[in-house]
Amino acid sequence: MLTKYEAQLKTMKQSGQAAIDQGLFFITPDDEQFSEGRFNLKGKPVINLSSCSYLGLELDPRLVQASADAARKFGTQYSSCRAFAQCPLYDELEDLLSQIFQAPTLANLSTTIGHIATLPILVKDNSHLVLDIQSHHCLRMSADYLANRGISSKTIRHNALEQLEQEIFAHPEQDIWYLIDGLYSMYGDYAPIPELLAMLDRHPRLHLYVDDAHGTSWTGENGQGYALEQGRHPRMIVSHSFTKAFGGSGGCVVFPDQQTRDQVRLLGGPFYWGSPIAPPVLGTAVASAKLHLDGTISKLQQSLMAKIKLFNRLCRQYQIPLIANNDTPIRYIGLGKQQTTNNVTKALLEQGFYASAVCYPSVSKNKTGLRLGITNHLTEAQIHRLVATLADILKREVSDETRAFIDKAFKRAF
């Protein structure tokens, strides 16, 4: 008999293999130059809707040039940990980041490494972790890491602040750390940051750790992201990613004060002894950070928002239901069973649009769906064609029986 974990792995394998068999997972575009959010797949041009580079900066010639310049100046790698001799670009980058986020920052090799370096230093032994059920997997990894110190954790319903408050009252002698996303990566809905800031004021034992990877750059003043745009608090830490709208690689953690930042830099192992960020990556990040501060980002944000609003308006016109009715670049159409999702995604690919077929365990088994990333690479004409094509496919692939199943799974009318 399979254990619970073995059964979960079996289900994951079945879901993933089904998408692989239909040519939806682990695809490799043709080895040709990418252009404006498009690639060729087996000789056929495809518009990439799986991208999280919402502002379209990954092909910006200024970032490409900065990456090449850094490689020529400092090499393809700088193989010395920061505790000994760091690449000079670190100081320049972190100074620019502190201007963007208006707070002390630490750059890191990845968002996940930032979590693993930061949380073990700030979370005390007498603490209890609470995670939103839709929190990104890297936050769950961090909770598993902290479990080695005997730190307990509890997963609660999505955005269920009443459950969070119950956990606070249930652990009267412990600090509570709530680990969440700022903008959730599947449905594209927000965490209730304003309400959480009020809870921080009411509950002095509550701490908030926000992974705002998908909120970075495309929103907020100078691209500071969704969470910090809502407000700040001495017990709120915010992590950002450079691999989404920022147009680079790596990430950073934003701290409420210099003392906390310096403590994590000194004691958070991966920040000083882990693999350093390569010079070309640092150069790219420096160039992007400068664009965040010179007004370029604001124009890119406005362009993206116009495209998001157009997409949402057309979905209403064609009666395509979105799970989150808000103006974010992550658009999710709930389709219920995996086979329905795969069929819709496959049909869309045949029409020249590659979107993400979301499967278990990224979402519950009966809440799979189509995830579309709206980016600045899309033209208005492409958005019109995308939505019209989607509407035709959904009429064909979603039967009355399937529609009833979707309505029950998502508790809303399809």
How would you portray this structure in words?
By secondary structure, the protein is an alpha/beta fold. The strands form three sheets. A seven-stranded mixed beta sheet has the order 3-9-8-7-6-4-5, sandwiched between helices. The protein has a three-stranded mixed beta sheet with strand order 1-2-11, covered by helices on one side. α4 crosses α9 and α13 crosses α14. The two termini are 38 Å apart.
Order of helices and strands: HEEHHEHEHEHEHEHEEHHHHEHEEEHH
Helical proportion, percent range: 40-55%
State Rg: 22 Å
Structural class: alpha/beta
Shape: globular
Strand content of the residues, in percent? 15-25%
Write the layout of secondary structure elements.
Layout lengths: L3 H18 L16 E4 L2 E5 L12 H14 L14 H13 L3 E4 L2 H12 L4 E6 L4 H11 L4 E5 L4 H10 L4 E7 L11 H10 L3 E6 L14 H5 L5 E6 L9 E4 L3 H10 L1 H4 L6 H15 L2 H22 L12 E7 L1 H13 L2 E2 L1 E3 L9 E6 L6 H18 L2 H11 L4
Helix pairs in contact: 2-11, 3-11, 4-5, 4-9, 12-14, 13-14
Keywords: Acyltransferase, Aminotransferase, Transferase
Cofactor: pyridoxal 5'-phosphate
GO molecular function: acyltransferase activity; transaminase activity
